[in-house]
């Protein structure tokens, strides 16, 4: 089954006031832990006079795995970082970092109030940024005998694959293409039928776009 990934559609900042405190929510799409940490440091430098710069991120850490992180940055333990991370997870976002900056206004919010304020600011940032859905694609190579390369190319075109090149040798021919993951099995079935199983298909790499 083809997988999908969700990430913020844009990098933005939202602002709101809650009981005299100002909360800024900065959300970014990132490609790695290093990029997420770079964004966190960027916001900390931008708002170095803030009372707190709470952060959380969720990034890829291998196929079907995610690395999750949060930092309360001086707020009571569990009152700020976890609600921001839960907002990210609740929206099923990946490769996402959110930093919620707080300028204390003099009124204490209590643990419950902090959880609502930080989580709410993170969710507002997600809402305003929008969510982009990425589809899974495979870069493939299909090897067949020379006389059957036309069949392969025709089936790739029929399934709307992007054909990159066709290479020929004394041993046969190889078609290189990019195809949506959900069309890979239909391609295999068609090739098996039309070539009598006389083909080899290799997935070179998998990516999302």
From TrEMBL:
Pfam families: Impact_N (PF01205). One of its GO terms (biological process) is regulation of translational initiation. InterPro entries: Impact, Impact_N, Impact_N_sf, Ribosomal_Su5_D2-typ_SF, UPF0029_Impact_CS. Residues 19-126 form the Impact N-terminal domain. One of its GO terms (cellular component) is cytoplasm. Gene3D superfamilies: Impact, N-terminal domain. PROSITE patterns: UPF0029. It comes from the Bacteria. Coiled coil: none annotated. Belongs to the IMPACT family. This is YigZ family protein. It comes from Halanaerobium polyolivorans. The lineage of its organism: Bacteria, Bacillati, Bacillota, Clostridia, Halanaerobiales.
